[in-house]
Design a protein that fits this description.
mainly alpha; single chain
Length: 67
Amino acid sequence: LETIENKKDGVLVNSVPADLAQAVIELLSDKNYYSMISSNARKKAEERFDVKKITKEIEDLYLELYD
């Protein structure tokens, strides 16, 4: 899985400083766009890095390897 889905929960840019600057300007100049990206990113992080979920995945892996 990709960590960032472009223009959904983040913005992918080339390593060219001007492209990064343009992406930042777009985010800062459109509050709705910024809010949507921010909300989606937070939701993805909460789902992906949930302590209970990660603990279960580690437990399952341990049982698979050592059971």
